[in-house]
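Notes from hallway chat w/ T.B., transcribed later so I don't forget. T.B. wanted the structure written out for a chain they're using in a teaching module, and asked if we could keep both sequence and structure tokens in one place. Agreed to drop them here.
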Amino acid sequence: MSLPLWCLLITALLPFWLAFWGSSVRRREFGHLDNHHPRQQYAQMTGKGARLWAAQSNAWEALALFTAGIVAMQTSGGGKLADIACVVFVLARIGHGLCYAMDLATLRSSLFVVSFLAVLSLFMTALL
């Protein structure tokens, strides 16, 4: 499997990692997991739990754009620039989730921009 596809797999797993982390925080906050109404329970969370829920939602949104970037990049064959853009994207997204959890808003926003620019780079490789 190519490096960009490995990066896509990692990116696809990030929301699940954030969900499991968020569930452990949710269990601590409420004393139990409400599996009948998990979204309502998440909506009542505060602090780290609420930030992890937001990070998970953002990770799902980022996955769609990254997947489109991978498809666009595949039309051109990729290359070294695409590999670098994929790795930068994955590292920025991991950092983004961690910053969400630790309430580092400015750094989180900066990593969001870095990941967005990395995806744009993938689309640019399709044009080159």
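Follow-up for T.B.: Residues 47-76 form the longest helix (30 residues). Might be a good example for the class.
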